[in-house]
Amino acid sequence: MMTQGYPRQGEIYLATLRSIADTKKRPVVVVSINVRNKLSRTVLVVPFTSDLNTGETPTRILILAGEGGLEVDSLAICDNISPVQKSYLERGSYGQMSTESLERIQRGIQIAIGIF
Question: 7 to each of 3, 54, 69, 72, 103, how far by Cα in Å?
């Protein structure tokens, strides 16, 4: 349940990403802008993984436990942006990421799509 009426950029939720045939619920961070989040039925998200074996790369950004409510150190998979229906976001927001962490994820997205 969203306290402000809609998900905000930088908030972390639990979601199932059906677009990648991933049945596991995982934390995601909302990366779409707030005006879109308010007006659309979907939001754009970047998923997290707790599998740190690949290590941090330009498009896989390490976010430490506690940030935005994450329970464990996680990699933001910036080369896997997905639209998710707002109704698929579960449990309400875990928390809000810091501006610095959100900017690091946005840079990872830019690298993934070739904007340097």
Answer: 9, 30, 15, 22, 18
Q: Under a CB-based contact definition with an 8 Å cutoff, are residues 85 and 42 in contact?
A: yes
Query: Helices in 1-116 by DSSP H: which ranges?
Result: 34-39, 99-112
pLDDT tens digits for range 11-39: 999 998 875 566 778 999 999 999 999 99
Instruction: Mention every residue, 6+ apart, whose C-beta is less than 8 A from residue 113.
Output: none
Q: Which domains does the chain have, with CATH numbers?
A: 11-112 (2.30.30.110)
Do the beta carbons of residue 3 and residue 92 sit within 8 Å?
yes
What would the pLDDT profile of 44-89 be if each residue is shown by its tens digit?
A: 999 999 999 989 999 999 999 999 999 999 999 999 999 999 999 9
Burial of residue 2 (number of CB atoms within 10 Å: 0-12, 13-18, 19+): middle
Distance CA 8, CA 4 (A): 8
